[in-house]
Amino acid sequence: MARKKKKRSAGKLSQQVVEYILTRDMEELATLSGEKIARALHRNRAYLYRKFKSDQNIGIHQFILREKIHRTVFLLGKNNDISITELSRRLGFLSVERFVREFIKYLAIDPRKYRELKSKL
Q: How do the domains of the chain map onto residue ranges?
């Protein structure tokens, strides 16, 4: 009986992490880390990482990266005026190359090509 309760609370904690990440604005998301999330939720960082990975089958860092790419996709489809360099800077990537690599990793297409395809639709 106690195990079920423990499992449920771990799922709840992971959901809190997801909600915390999804409710950050672009500026906050750019500098967001697992450490900041752990402090905000008053949890031990190692415990939070383990529980999140166990529940979500993805690490916190990877989840944050995925959310950054998701927001980029939205902005690329919405705004042709913003450069790829500016987008990568706004999202906290240290280099455009790293940003492009992560974008391709998640979507299997270069962000510039993605923008071209979206503009044709």
A: 2-120
Burial of 22: CB neighbours in 10 Å, binned 0-12, 13-18, 19+:
exposed
Asked if 99 and 57 count as a contact pair (C-beta separation under 8 A), the reply is no
Over residues 43-53, mean pLDDT: 96
108 backbone φψ class: left, alpha, beta (φ>0; ψ -120 to 50): left
How many angstroms separate the CA atoms of 18 and 36, rounded? 13
Closest to 114 in 3D by CA, of 66, 78, 86, 63: 78
pTM above 0.70, yes or no: yes
How far is it, in rounded angstroms, from Cα 64 to Cα 34? Answer: 9
Q: Which CATH superfamily is domain 2-120 in?
A: Homeodomain-like (1.10.10.60)
List, for residues 58-107, the tens digit of each pLDDT value: 999 999 999 999 999 988 887 778 899 999 999 999 999 999 999 999 99
